[in-house]
Amino acid sequence: METSPKTFQGNCHCGANRYQVHLAEYPSLVICDCSLCVKKGHVWIYDAEDSLKVTKGCSRETLTTYTGSDSEALKHEGNELIRKRQFCNVCGTALFGTHTSGVQAGKKGINFRVIVSDFQDVFIKGRSVMTIGAPDEYLPYPGSLSFIEKASTSVPVEFRGSLPEVSGDDLTLYTGGCDCGAVQVAIKSKSPSQVEIKEDNCSICVRVCLEFMPWPIASGYELY
């Protein structure tokens, strides 16, 4: 049985961008595995643009658009995936986004992370969406939850920074960075399965999908 749409409030962390949107109690969600969505933890709501009402900001003056695409090799093969995201230009919260391929091609998506706190007993943990039943009882999300797999096979940006000079038989070198490669980091650490990885539920961590691990034994980064 379908429930009547409800009005939910969405806003970036600093409040420069705000909107209202009418959605079902448990709207259909889409999780994409393109490199940008994985890095940012985006969870998308589609087909809701007609019910979206901007109440503050959400304009060229308050949003910055980032456009990412696949590697040059994939472009030549005709498989290029272009991803656009609109972020608050003050706090960095991603509010809206589009893809050029997949079931969501050409549609404007609303980042569910921005409004999840307005849903009772619904929360996001990593790449999963769950609800809370009895105390300490986690249940699957009762609405539709779709996973878009193999959305992007882009080659990671080659690491160009300095590497930590720390030895240890139990340490492994990990490199990573932002989607465009402007910021890169290298760390030596124990395996992720051997360290505690924490995902906080404060308002900014939920919106921008921050997950933490203990400060590594050694780290180095380069800015370009």
Could you characterize what this model shows?
The chain has 224 residues and is mainly beta. The chain has two domains: 143 residues, Metal Binding Protein, Guanine Nucleotide Exchange Factor, Chain A, CATH 2.170.150.70; 68 residues, no CATH class. It is built from three helices and 18 strands. It has a five-stranded antiparallel beta sheet, with no helix packed on it. The chain has a three-stranded antiparallel beta sheet with strand order 1-2-5, with no helix packed on it. It has a three-stranded antiparallel beta sheet with strand order 10-11-12, with no helix packed on it. A hairpin with a 5-residue loop joins β14 and β15. The chain is globular. The chain starts with 5 loop residues before the first strand and ends with a strand. It comes from Colletotrichum salicis. Belongs to the Gfa family. One of its GO terms (molecular function) is carbon-sulfur lyase activity. This is Glutathione-dependent formaldehyde-activating enzyme. InterPro entries: CENP-V-like (IPR052355), CENP-V/GFA (IPR006913), Mss4-like_sf (IPR011057).
Query: Can you give the mean pLDDT?
Result: 81
Helix-strand topology string = EEEHEEEHEEEEEEEEEEHEE
**Are there runs of 5+ residues with pLDDT below 50, and where?**
71-79, 219-224
Strand order of the largest sheet: 4-9-8-7-6
| End-to-end distance | 53 Å
Overall tally of structural domains: 2
CATH class of the largest domain reads Mainly Beta
Quote the beta fraction.
Answer: 35-45%
Continuous helix count: 3
Determine Rg (CA atoms, Å): 19 Å
Structural class: mainly beta
CATH topology of the largest domain: Metal Binding Protein, Guanine Nucleotide Exchange Factor, Chain A
